[in-house]
Amino acid sequence: MTGTRARRTVVSIAVSAALACGTACTASGGSTGSTDSTGSTAPPASTAPPAATPPRSAPPRSAPPSSGPASSDPPALTGPSAESLRAVERATGRAGSARVESTTVMGSELSLEATGALGWRDGLTGTLTITYTGGTTAETMRRLGTEAMEARYLPDAYYARMGDEFADRMGGRHWIKYVYADLEDLGGGAGAGFADQMRSTTPHQAVKRLLASGTVREVGEETTRGRRTTHWSGKVGGATAQTVDIWVDDRDLLVKKVERGRTETGELTQTAYYSDYGVAVSAKRPPAADTADFKELLAAQGR
């Protein structure tokens, strides 16, 4: 393989890993671009992330409709439903962490499963194991020797551990480091807002989005993974509106979240389950000697 082609292949792996890490956490509605015959992948097109949020708690408490002045912000939910969802936002936010299981499908481009634990007290932190299960991005990664990877999320960056084949091409380095600020600078605005998107993927942030949408309805009581929950459904996001459904238990904690929308390659669906709220979360920075910087990989290819 020529030096140029090898560099393109390495960047292809790095971009695919960025998509997977971002999608596992955010249900990103963006596109990664196409992969050419050399294995080079264009930077992700747009990353509009719906985060995987868990189910919502029991029936609304008997709080009276809000009598305060209407918010000057765009449509916001009011009345008993708003009070119930605010209780969920507070309880989930205070919990600070949870175990996560999610599945994501982005049209023909990518499908994956993610399991692990995430925390949100001091920025997004935690570790997920991400397994590719289908789509063109998964096929590219498998050809390059990677079917699953570990992703570590820290407040300023996240790290993706690649396979031995990637390490062979990178002088023995297994990890790719993605600094959020660097991703913001990707050409064509591909990374615009990426850091904010990653930080807003926690369960209580998803409830905030529903509260701001003003289009939420209580569907009713359901049993979710053996627990009594209240199901809420709403639309968020302007022109490319996405549907968000959450199921909440009697402690006002999300148990399940489903987001649906569209991407350039087809339907986007992400389902996430949350459990063990308050679980201890750790995410250690990998050794610098075993880490390649994404920005440097792009610069080496002249992007």
> Helix/strand/pairing class, anyone?
alpha+beta
Biggest β-sheet strands, sense, barrel = 12 strands, mixed
What is the CA-atom radius of gyration, in angstroms?
20 Å
Assign the CATH class: Mainly Beta
Report strand order across the widest sheet: 7-8-9-10-11-1-2-3-4-5-6-12
Order of helices and strands: HHEEEHEEHEHHHEEEEEEH
CATH architecture: Clam
The backbone outline, from C-alpha atoms, is: elongated
Q: Mean pLDDT score, rounded?
A: 78
CATH topology: outer membrane lipoprotein receptor (LolB), chain A
Total count of helical runs of at least 4 residues: 8
Write the layout of secondary structure elements.
Blueprint lengths: L2 H24 L53 H16 L1 E10 L3 E10 L5 E10 L1 H8 L4 E6 L3 E5 L2 H6 L5 E5 H4 L10 H6 L3 H11 L3 E8 L2 E10 L5 E7 L5 E10 L2 E10 L15 E3 H7 L3
Notable characteristics:
12 strands, outer membrane lipoprotein receptor (LolB), chain A, elongated, twelve-stranded mixed beta sheet, alpha+beta, 303 residues
Short description:
The protein is an alpha+beta fold and 303 residues long.
Walkthrough of the structure:
By secondary structure, the protein is an alpha+beta fold. The protein has a single domain, classed as Clam (outer membrane lipoprotein receptor (LolB), chain A), CATH 2.50.20.20. It has eight helices and twelve strands. Strand 4 and strand 5 form a beta hairpin. The longest helix has 24 residues. The protein is elongated, with a radius of gyration of 20 Å. The relative contact order is 0.23.
